[in-house]
Amino acid sequence: MTKIHYEISMTNPHNHLFEVKMVVTDFVDEKATLKMAVWTPGSYLVREYSRHIQDFRVEVEGSPLAFQKTKKNTWVVETKGNSSFVVSYNVYAFEFSVRTSYLDGEHGFFNGACVFMYLENKLDLSSTIKIIPYKKWHISTPLKFNEETGLYQSKDFDEIVDSPVECGTHSKDFFDVLGKTHEVAIFGHGNFNKKQLLSDLKKIVEKQGEFFGGLPYDNYVFIIHFVEGQYGGLEHKNCNVSVYPGSKMRKMDDYIGFLGLESHEYFHTWNVKRIRPQPLGPFDYENENYTRCLWLCEGWTSYYQDIWLVRAGIITPDQYLTLLGKTLDKVLTVPGRFKQSAAQSSFDAWIKLYRRDENTINTTISYYSRGKTNAAMGLDFWLRNETNNQKSLDDILLYLWKNYGEKDIGFPEEKILEIMSEAVGIDLSDFFYRFIEGKDDIPNDWFNFAGLEVKPENKTKEKDRKEGIPFLGWMLQTKENKLLVKSVLSGSPAEEAGIYARDEIIAINDLRVSPKENMPEYLLNFKPKQKIKITLFRFNKLYQVKATLRKAPFDKFTIEPLEEPDEKAKNILEAIIGQPFPVKKEKDK
Q: How far is it, in rounded angstroms, from Cα 163 to Cα 391?
């Protein structure tokens, strides 16, 4: 059987090149077709990793072997009867994110899909990997290490892709939960208390492991990058990678945001990496892997990420309700929710979510936020109310775990409605076609099922103006000391006036506006129904347009406890959050 051994080194990190060797032995075919993945599981966009390959060569005992590049990510080698050969190439790594690879004088990080090639139709081959770190750098990775050989091992290419590697002088800390070791590898700096951070991560692991009845891995690694201006996370079966601005950790809201990210990525240990629709594993690394179920994979995970924090006692019920309200802000202020369902958003992830433009807000809705509000929260509230708190989203999740995730088989996504209905003994067709395949908003009064109410308002300070807050329907940004239109909401006064994205705003009613102007505050000088003249540049040509202001729609949604919820509603919320029902604050009465 063909054997594969990889070596990856970083002898000069300042050139940002990972040096890779792929040693193939016991090969029997006349041609060897080598391929590079075009995407990384968990990040649904074709990223063309082969564009970073350079200095590709193939040798047999030091002599070159002929090859031909036949596609963007494909190299065909004429083996000429040689059963062993060595493929060498360098990978340029200077894109800092959780889904790519990066190397500089401080540390190196890589995902397997970005640096390792594979043999066509041989993804199931096991392999050994030698990682040669720069100087005295150390390594953090979930890959299994053989102490005797000094090599890492993977059972197949999927495991290589699923096992990111951090090299450098990062800190390494450990804690145990249910007899399993958890490593926390931190690169960068931040305003945080490490002892508290480790304690909170442990609580998250304990609470989620308790829910599922155990931990489905032998060891787990948290790879955390504290880097300014960066945010994101990527899940793996027994690891997750996150990046977060470390300077923001001193504020409680931002620290909670970081813990929410960690809770989210860790929950993917079950939901997505094991509970998954069939298209998401085994993977096709050359093409898009389409699914209509990212509302479940990511939306449900987004819902539970905050629940684990409150159930673990890391945040208060009031803080939990604040997080729910922020999600409503992200959904109910986006016109695209009328154009795209959670299921459609899932399927179109490959062409829309990671390719935002000036019209994205008008045509799309994120399967993260829509999945959280509709497919998770709405379904959970409604189910608990219908069954007197006897059935919930928890039951569906555990059913999927026992019947699919625990067995490590994907569920047939065309039967997900049937599976969900069977899990709770209720026909969920009406809900499914209205709120998941359909575009309806969850009714505000459904919050009453959990003893809550939604209070819509405007973010602008002067909330009590009887005539209302003036509204144009544009989103602005300052760039190169210019006040530019970033997006125009469909059907808004700005659109009707003929204002376009990328227009440079110069003046309103013949008075110049500064690029640093707080436009919502500036527009308070006017009233709804009032006409204003806007002067702008478009491709260096001066234009003047007239717009009629309207009363602003609500753009902030606060979730609060009801004054006098009934016992059923109180029991529902307490079951969700694992905490006593929050008392309505005196100032709100």
A: 36
Cα within 13 Å of Cα(204), Cβ side: 27
Average pLDDT over residues 392-417: 98
Taking each continuous run of H as one helix and of E as one strand, the counts in the chain are 17, 31
CA–CA–CA angle 24, 30, 36 (5° rounding): 50
Fill in the amino acid letter for 408. Answer: D
Rounded to an integer, what distance in angstroms lies between the CA atom of residue 325 and that of residue 288? 34
Compute the distance between CA of residue 318 and CA of residue 583 in angstroms, rounded to an integer: 9
pLDDT at 258 over 80: yes
- In 3D, which of 583, 55, 526, 48 has the Cα closest to residue 318? 583
Collapsed DSSP state (helix, strand, coil) of residue 308 = helix
118-119 sheet: strands from edge to edge: 67-71, 74-78, 31-35, 118-119
Write the DSSP string, 324-360.
Answer: HHHHHHHHHT-GGGGT--HHHHHHGGGTTTTS--TTH
Cα distance between residue 74 and residue 24, in whole Å: 16
Q: Which residue has the higher pLDDT, 515 or 172?
A: 172
Under DSSP, is residue 316 helix (H, G, I), strand (E, B) or coil?
coil
Largest Cα–Cα separation, the chain: 85
* Helix locations, 219-337, DSSP H: 252-267, 294, 301-311, 317-332
**Vertex 167: Cα angle to 163 and 169 (nearest 5):** 140
For the chain, the distance separating the N- and C-terminal CA atoms, rounded to the nearest angstrom, is 74
Instruction: List the alpha helices (DSSP H) in 102-251.
Output: 112-115, 157-161, 194-212
In angstroms, the CA 184 to CA 219 distance is 11
Extract the tokens encoding 177.
């939960």
Query: Residue 477 carries which DSSP code?
Result: E
pTM for the full model? 0.96
pLDDT tens figures, 67-76: 999 999 999 9
- Name all domains of the chain by residue range, CATH numbers in brackets: 3-167 (2.60.40.3650), 170-269 (1.10.390.10), 271-458+561-589 (1.10.390.10), 470-551 (2.30.42.10)
Instruction: Write the burial class of residue 353 (CB in 10 Å: 0-12 exposed, 13-18 middle, 19+ buried).
Output: buried
Does the pLDDT at position 307 exceed 90? yes
Give residue 326's pLDDT. Answer: 95
- DSSP state at residue 248: G
Q: What is the dihedral of CA 50, 55, 108, 14, to 10 degrees?
A: -130
How distant is the alpha carbon of residue 406 from its chain centre?
23
The pLDDT of residue 587: 52
Q: How confident is the model at residue 463 (pLDDT cuts 50, 70, 90)?
A: low
Beta-carbon count within 10 A of 75 CB: 21
Cis ω before 282 (30° cut-off from 0):
yes
Distance, CA of 55 to chain centre: 33
| CB-based contact 281:264 (threshold 8 Å) | no
Question: What is the SS3 string spanning 149-179?
Answer: CCEEEECCHHHHHCCCEEEECCEEEEEEECC
Sheet holding 102-103, edge to edge: 102-103, 107-110, 165-168, 138-140
